[in-house]
């Protein structure tokens, strides 16, 4: 039996101890850290299956930790925080976290959501019958190197921006609702608002569209959602 490892990054001692006991009882190997600056080092050493990450930590906040981890891995990340405002949720999800849970939390729901993220991460790691490279007029997307070039220049995309672009590029003519994109890119259906998808599309357009107002690559289908606006070459 393979025991999955979870790194718990939490500066509150009582919450840290509670999470360690809870997750150990669920059969996980738990590593705990209390400072943001320790998280990246611990993840490199223990190579966990999931990171449970607080936002407000000394040394480096959770957003910066997430940003740094996403530069080198697709480690599943769940943010667990007392900060409830929608802007923080959008920031965390766009940076690449896989779920966002606010305190106080129900321990049963937390465990279920951890298991759901782990299960989906395993499913996504399976080989898919997709091309490694998609060429669009003026754009090349390489899924092996995860590099996107627009007019020959590399565009710096966040993991979620890239995931959105790759999904649309591999499904030409398919229209996705915001709810479908929320489910497929983040694998979550816990958020009442799809504003995170709208924000993600806006940020991606600002990076790849020749003219943001003309919607060349990503078309808005009013009242429905979005689709790829050009045919792959």
From TrEMBL:
Superkingdom: Bacteria
**GO MF term set:** phosphorelay response regulator activity; transcription cis-regulatory region binding
Q: What PROSITE patterns does this protein's entry cite?
A: OMPR_PHOB, RESPONSE_REGULATORY
Which Gene3D superfamilies does this chain map to? 3.40.50.2300, 6.10.250.690, Winged helix-like DNA-binding domain superfamily/Winged helix DNA-binding domain
For this record, the Gene Ontology CC terms, alphabetical, are: cytosol; protein-DNA complex
* Residues modified to 4-aspartylphosphate: 54
**Which InterPro entries is this protein grouped with?**
CheY-like_superfamily, OmpR/PhoB-type_DNA-bd, Sig_transdc_resp-reg_C-effctor, Sig_transdc_resp-reg_receiver, WalR-like, WH-like_DNA-bd_sf
DNA-binding region(s), residue ranges? 131-230
> A biological process (GO) annotation for this entry?
regulation of DNA-templated transcription
Q: Which UniProt keywords apply?
A: DNA-binding, Phosphoprotein, Transcription, Transcription regulation, Two-component regulatory system
Flavoprotein: present as a keyword of the record?
no
Location of the Response regulatory domain: 5-118
Q: What does this protein do?
A: May play the central regulatory role in sporulation. It may be an element of the effector pathway responsible for the activation of sporulation genes in response to nutritional stress. Spo0A may act in concert with spo0H (a sigma factor) to control the expression of some genes that are critical to the sporulation process.
Q: What is this protein called?
A: Stage 0 sporulation protein A homolog
Q: Which organism is it from?
A: Desulfosporosinus acidiphilus (strain DSM 22704 / JCM 16185 / SJ4)
């Amino acid at each position: 039996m393979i025991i999955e490892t979870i790194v718990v990054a939490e500066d509150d001692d009582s919450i840290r101890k509670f999470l360690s006991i809870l997750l150990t009882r669920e059969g996980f190997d738990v590593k705990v850290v209390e400072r943001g600056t320790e998280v990246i080092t611990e993840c490199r050493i223990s190579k966990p299956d999931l990171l449970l990450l607080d936002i407000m930590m000394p040394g480096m906040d959770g957003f910066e930790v997430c940003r740094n981890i996403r530069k080198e891995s697709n480690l599943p990340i769940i943010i667990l925080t007392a900060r409830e405002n929608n802007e923080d949720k959008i920031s965390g999800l766009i940076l690449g976290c896989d779920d966002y849970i606010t305190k106080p939390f129900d321990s049963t729901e937390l465990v279920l959501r951890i298991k759901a993220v782990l299960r989906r991460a395993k499913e996504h790691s399976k080989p898919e019958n997709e091309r490694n490279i998609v060429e669009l007029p003026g754009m090349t997307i390489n899924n092996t190197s995860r590099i996107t070039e627009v007019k020959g220049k590399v565009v710096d995309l966040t993991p979620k921006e890239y995931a959105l672009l790759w999904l649309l590029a591999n499904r030409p003519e398919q229209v996705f609702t915001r709810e479908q994109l929320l489910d497929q890119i983040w694998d979550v259906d816990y958020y009442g608002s799809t504003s995170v998808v709208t924000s993600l599309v806006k940020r991606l357009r600002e990076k790849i569209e020749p003219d943001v107002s003309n919607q060349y690559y990503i078309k808005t289908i009013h009242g429905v959602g979005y689709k790829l606006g050009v045919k792959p070459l």
